[in-house]
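Structure in, sequence out. Go:
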């Protein structure tokens, strides 16, 4: 089963944008993310609808952050992308009348709900500013300078 990495990718894009002094084009972000600009525009369109980014067309245009990194949590972005399923596991439902299956599913439902609640709480505790600070610490340790097109070099 393929894992859903949209949240990670969107956070990645937002942090790249936070490092820019002006608008960033979909093409620049796509190069940094090793994807297609259409994918970036689709992602960014949803964030624009939530008020986290804005866009301008034409020469000098592109995407700009419109949110305070201290005020936006990972949970906010998770919700903005439609709150995708967090856990890949689920219950067996082939024999709903089976008392054993019912007992197993009851226990698993509670465990899954507890795990999701814990994860959502943690996502709500981490801000984009905290991610940005961690990035800057790592960049400083590397002794590097931020450049959108070369930042992924090891």
């Amino acid at each position: 089963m393929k894992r859903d990495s949209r949240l990670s990718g969107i956070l990645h894009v937002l942090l790249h944008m936070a490092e820019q002094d002006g608008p960033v084009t979909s093409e620049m972000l796509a190069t940094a993310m090793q994807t297609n600009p259409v994918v970036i525009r689709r992602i960014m369109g949803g964030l624009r609808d939530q008020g986290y980014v804005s866009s301008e067309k034409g020469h000098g245009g592109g995407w700009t952050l419109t949110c305070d990194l201290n005020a936006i949590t990972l949970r906010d972005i998770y919700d903005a992308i439609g709150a995708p399923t967090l856990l890949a596991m689920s219950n067996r439902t082939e024999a709903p009348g089976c008392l054993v299956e019912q007992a197993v599913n009851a226990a698993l439902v509670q465990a899954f709900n507890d795990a999701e609640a814990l994860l959502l709480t943690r996502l709500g505790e981490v801000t984009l500013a905290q991610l940005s600070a961690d990035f800057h610490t790592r960049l400083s340790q590397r002794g590097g300078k931020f450049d959108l097109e070369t930042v992924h070099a090891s």
